## 1
Amino acid sequence: MSDTKVYLLDGGSLVLDGYHVYWNRGPGGEVRFPVYSILVEHAEGRFLIDTGFDYDHVMKVLPFEKPIQSKDQTIPGALALLGLEPKDIDVVVNSHFHFDHCGGNKYFPHAKKICHKSEVPQACNPQPFEHLGYSDLSFSLEAAEARGATEQIMEGTTRANSTFEGIDGDVELAKGVKLISTPGHSIGHYSLMVNFGKRKPILFTIDAAYTQKSLETLCQAAFHIDPVAGVESMHRVRKLAEDNDAELMYSHDMENFKTYQTGTRFYG
Ligand SMILES: [Zn+2]
């Protein structure tokens, strides 16, 4: 475990209104926020948690989110900075299936895939207010067919990508690497805790708290399925961080992201 390393794969950025980032609280106005994926290099394998957004999908379906993504910020590009290719990844985990967390799944037909057991059914049949969140369906033949989005099915990859191991509750992915059940933002949302040999643990809130301010004020994003569960999950994240003396890292916090180590730099 002492050689566990965590790399953050910078996936570019998107824009939301402040009232979406901080539900019913704001302030309003454009907020540009980062999107990144988490690569855990572990004695038991290479685990990739989330796969960012697909630029073409966002331009087609949600152009108002004004995506910015350089070549190095695509999944293959970010892996190439580390001398890796998609085939070097053993396991892909999706914290949930919002489009900015699964857009790069298509690069990993060979990898084992894990998600909460309720997330694929939810992507197949989302609540009316979840349609744009669950709009990139290229990760699942079942979801693309259920939603009538067959134009998103990619010959040769979508089918190969569609088998997920469905999990529930907290799950240890590998020794010291734990998925933390934090529903609310989505039905089966997961946060991630990584323990290291030498440094303090890191608790990735993922979308249970977009930003440090979100967690401090218990103000979640406007995108959620159960806001009360979302608040409970934020309490849970706070307590876990405190009990484990963990460093908190947020999914969509530009101020903090500027201080995070990306590219070839790593945590470990
Ligand atoms: Zn989300």
## 2
Amino acid sequence: MNQAYKECNKHFPKSISQEIKDYVTETVLRDSRYIFIRRVARVQYGYCTHCNNRFRTTGDLKHNNSTECPHCRSKCKIKNHGMSRKYLSDHGFVVYYEKSKINPDSAIIAQAFRVYRNYSGDYTKVETKYVAVARYLFESDNPGRATMYEWWGGWKEAQSVHSLWAQSSCSNSRCSIDSIKEAIQGTPFQYSTWDQHEQPQPDYIKFFALYSKYPVVEILTKVGFKYFVSAKLFDQKTYSCINWRAKQFHEVLRLSKQDLNLVLKGMKGLNPMQLRLFQMSRKDSAPPTLQEIKSFFTKSVGDVLNELNVVLKYSSLRKAMNYMGKQIRNCETYRTCSGLLIAWRDYIRDCETLELDLAHDLILYPKNLHEEHQRTMSLVKTKIDEIARMKMIKRAEALQKYAFEDQRFIIRPPGNADEIIKEGKTLNHCVARYADDHARGKTTILFIRLKDKPECPYYTMEIKKNEITQTRGFKNSAMTDEVKRFVQKFKSHKLTEKRKEAVAK
Ligand SMILES: [Zn+2]
């Protein structure tokens, strides 16, 4: 057992408490109660597996029906004594909270067990079996933390604290809510607002793990920012609105004290994106008010923060809002704020590609965004084509080292992309698919031609890492013996030599 686990283990009781056992019996395995019936000299007797009483039945109990035990009043399923019980067993999964044994005022623990009862043997001696699968420790001391150990034939610390509820794939999964209430009583966890956060996996493991690490969960929930806590719990967007580690509340919301007050007053209907925009614009010279942000970026605008982030690299939020308002009023193309923003973002990216100076208002805020965007789009396309063309030419120059010939054949690199495409068309194979990789240097395409027909595609070769990976002719045909011999010559002249050099280095 390692030292860290030993420390953690001190918080846990040495044995399974009576409370857990009672909870399992009364709740998790509540339906695991049977009356086994048998006849002795025409008299029917029953045996209750819950209270272990044997009794004479009043009537005729039937196999697989249900009845109430006359002693303990449990609802029980009836089973024939003589029936095969090979597969009769019941299973459950339980999460149970308790106070820490050593820090009962500041730490709580939780244990997860698989539990089962197996009735295949003597049904008067069936015991509940407990298989511990996870141990959790939640500490609220400064700094708080959450730890989880999982059972893998030995206790191993888990990378992240997580619930096993979904994995348990057991229809009888239960977490004792009463055990939570009792465990947190008198600890800081009782103020954690745990009961305000519905859990899809109702064992609250994720919640207490979050709270242990970030006690601001409590104040965020209480002040009305429950959204962010839920979002954090369920991996939804929090827009970086929250500084989870901050101590002071205004720092948690990344605001000055005055701005925090404005937000608290304008909380009603405030959504996370609006809050984020308010936070981001505070350092601008004439920032919009919270009210202006709320009425401009209404719910119907949707989530446009990604697009806005590109715009806000160059523009203040106030100016961006003014510009968008004008474009929507004056331009036929954009009816919605989000449609306009997507076009504006794309336009800005075009300007970046074309190295236009976005510090100029005339460029950043074009009078007619739609027209200007059409123009930059075609410029960008030309530029990209040009870049590809230049790349191909450079490649062709660099690959001249592979040029080779004998009396009958020549081998040379393609001069441009069109040549590769033509090669594929003429020879009816798929080399054209490699054109892009070739231009980017990921692979190398070479043409083999007959010396007396140098313009006519004949065989195509691919080289990767100084090795020939394939040589294909018409319709992917393999090399003739003659071509093979030429390729062998090429290889010993151009490829093996290189390798020797590489080894020599
Ligand atoms: Zn009973």
